[in-house]
Request: fold
Amino acid sequence: MNPLNYESFSLFPSIVQALEIEHFDNRELVKAAYELKDRDEGVRKSNKGGWHSKTFQVSQRDTPINQILIDMIGSFPNMKKDWKRDLYLHAWVNINSPGSFNVIHLHPGCQLSGVFWVKYPPNSGDISFRNPQEFVYHRLLTRGYEDEFKEQTKNKSYYRIRPQEGTMLMFPSSLEHGVDENKSTEDRISISFNIKIM
Reply:
C-alpha cells in the first residue's frame, strides 16, 4: 500500500516564546541581583537550595531588573500592540548556587509566566517542560511514535531547553516546568515573572 497525501499538524499547542538580546552584558543585572539578596532573606517555593527573592510588582523602570523585564516583555512579537496596557506583572530573582534546583511546578492564578537568564554558567541546569497530555498519552509517547517524529513535533513526555544568558522565555502559566541541578561551581542567576492579563 502506498499512502497518499500524508501530513501531520499540531492542534492547540502550548506556545513557548523565546527572545534573545544580542551582545548581552550581564554585569549590571548580576550586581543588582546580589544587592537584592543582601536586603531580602528570600522565601522557599519550588527552589531546593539556592535563594528565591520575595515577589515584587513591576510597574515602572525604576531598577535595572524592572527595566529589563518591561523592555523585554514589551518586545515580544505576535502579541497585540496594546496587550501590556491591561496586565499585572510581578517577578522574583533566583540565585541558584551549586547543587540547587527547582522541582517541577506551575504558576496558578495567572496566564503567562517566564524567565530571563542573567547568568548561566555551563552545566548549571536546563529548564524542562512536562507535556500536559503526558498522563493520557504516556504509552503513545513512550512506545508509539518514532523518536525522530517526537523530536520534530516536540511531542515528548518532557522537553528540555538549554538556557542562554540574555534570553527570555515566556510560556503559559499552566505548563509544568522545573530546572535541573546546578552542577557547575558558580551561581546561576535568573529573573522569573508572572503576568495576569486583566
